[in-house]
Amino acid sequence: MGSYKGEEQHHHHHHRNESNCVLVHGPIIVGAGPSGLATSACLKQQSVPSLILEKSDCIASLWQHRTYDRLKLHLPKQFCELPLLGFPHNFPKYPTKHQFISYMETYASHFSIKPRFNQAVIKAEFDHVLGFWRVKTQDFEYISRWLIVATGENAEPVIPDIPGIDRFKGRVVHTSLYKSGSVFKNQRVLVIGCGNSGMEVCLDLCRFNVIPHMVVRNTVHVLPREMFGFSTFGIAMALVKWFPLKLVDKLLLLLANFTLGNTDQIGLRRPKTGPIELKNVTGKTPVLDVGALSQIKSGKIKVVEGVKEVTINGAKFVDGQEKEIDSIILATGYKSNVPTWLKGCEFFTKDGMPKSPFPNGWKAEKGLYTVGFTRRGLLGTASDAVNIAKDIGEQWRTIKECNDSNFNYLPQRNVVQNKVKK
Ligand SMILES: Cc1cc2nc3c(=O)[nH]c(=O)nc-3n(C[C@H](O)[C@H](O)[C@H](O)COP(=O)(O)OP(=O)(O)OC[C@H]3O[C@@H](n4cnc5c(N)ncnc54)[C@H](O)[C@@H]3O)c2cc1C
Ligand SMILES: NC(=O)C1=CN([C@@H]2O[C@H](COP(=O)(O)OP(=O)(O)OC[C@H]3O[C@@H](n4cnc5c(N)ncnc54)[C@H](OP(=O)(O)O)[C@@H]3O)[C@@H](O)[C@H]2O)C=CC1
Ligand SMILES: O=C(O)C(=O)Cc1c[nH]c2ccccc12
């Protein structure tokens, strides 16, 4: 291989012409969340430069701007580490949201990752003539051979169409905008949805003299966060290495019933399918209880059936009950936004998730990759990031060898740059 110096100097130098076209040296990564940062770090370790485009004004914007104050990781920190640099040793077993953000900041600065902020990708398309991806933001068009989708499974809130909700006079907020129950002090609050967000928002509201009513329209698995001092997630991970999934699920449910009691009696019916199997098949995360359950048992959180209709100042439920309420919190989950901006690509479902299931969803065709769409949280992100960096690293070295031996040719980026017209 030839000299490396020239390349090094270009790591943060992308070529821009007058028509707002930026030729990116290395892959384009969309999103500066944990997935984008992890991939950029792993690429850097392979000596591959990259450019992150981020629509928000900071890294890990989901964690900084769209989560509630009292959020902590549900899984022990060893299951939420990104590759190459772990959590600080003095962090507790379940780091707070602020500790997680500080870890992300440290991670980005350790690998000198400098995303371009306030760049919302509005369209990305493969140019078959050039053989490159064209990635448009509101300001520029970025061009690269590789495009890495890191916009996350939680890019947009799910806002269900509930009859009458437009007429409602009170406040309606999605959990992505909920910070603390202080704004709802002494109010009658309806929380729609009973995933981890719904449960934890209800628990938070209890601290502010609210008796939240939580809508549970369906079945749900609730597991204790820990059993006998071990994290339930850790126990499950260890058991599936040795036993069939269905057996592990049976065991988990046995232990959960032992520590939590029968949840059916408090309106939380369990699905027929076990918690891990359900997670693998549908992506539905079991609730890891951090205190909501005991509030339900003591009547401080009320479980109600599905909403039929929202009125001016209340709600009607499918069982015929009617209630006056002051505010509604939508704990109805999140969705990918990939279909809104990635065009002409068969790799994603209409919901914006890769069609191939884990662990094979990270590589599409024509230099397209995805990181963080595994439904396996940050562990899935770590796995994808390592795979992508290895794969692109090999291609990068091949191209470099070509360029180094054929010194009669211009470096590839210049050839392309001259062809780009707008
Ligand atoms: C409340 C909550 C708690 C969670 N807790 C855990 C946990 O304890 N453990 C765990 O493993 N996982 C947890 N998760 C899952 C979560 O998905 C991961 O923690 C992690 O944030 C995923 O990282 P990501 O980079 O894939 O996505 P994100 O963190 O969502 O980052 C994606 C980034 O892409 C940007 N973006 C989106 N669209 C565009 C666009 N068009 N152009 C440019 N930029 C764009 C966004 O602004 C964002 O910064 C939690 C999720 C939520 C909602
Ligand atoms: N500390 C942590 O680690 C935390 C992690 N998270 C993670 O973030 C992700 C998102 O969680 P979350 O925000 O809870 O979203 P989820 O998708 O897990 O849950 C959404 C909930 O809303 C319900 N719902 C959706 N639409 C309606 C409707 N029209 N009427 C009534 N109910 C409805 C769903 O019910 P149904 O099943 O019937 O569709 C479900 O109970 C998960 O992976 C979760 O684990 C979240 C909070 C804390
Ligand atoms: O919080 C998420 O989004 C995750 O995917 C991580 C996670 C939390 N609880 C779980 C239970 C089973 C598998 C993953 C998770």
Automatic annotation (TrEMBL):
Record-level GO BP terms: auxin biosynthetic process
Recorded E.C. number(s)? 1.-.-.-
The record's comment on protein family reads: Belongs to the FMO family.
> Among the entry's GO cellular component annotations, what is one?
endoplasmic reticulum membrane
Q: Say if the entry is tagged with keyword Flavoprotein.
A: yes
Which Pfam families does the entry link to? FMO-like (PF00743)
Assigned keywords, A-Z: Auxin biosynthesis, FAD, Flavoprotein, Monooxygenase, NADP, Oxidoreductase
Q: Which reaction does it catalyse?
A: indole-3-pyruvate + NADPH + O2 + H(+) = (indol-3-yl)acetate + CO2 + NADP(+) + H2O
Q: Which organism is this entry from? A: Gossypium davidsonii (Davidson's cotton)
Give GO terms: molecular function aspect only.
flavin adenine dinucleotide binding; indole-3-pyruvate monooxygenase activity; N,N-dimethylaniline monooxygenase activity; NADP binding
Write down what this protein is called.
Flavin-containing monooxygenase
Pathway membership, UniProt: Plant hormone metabolism; auxin biosynthesis
**Requisite cofactors:** FAD
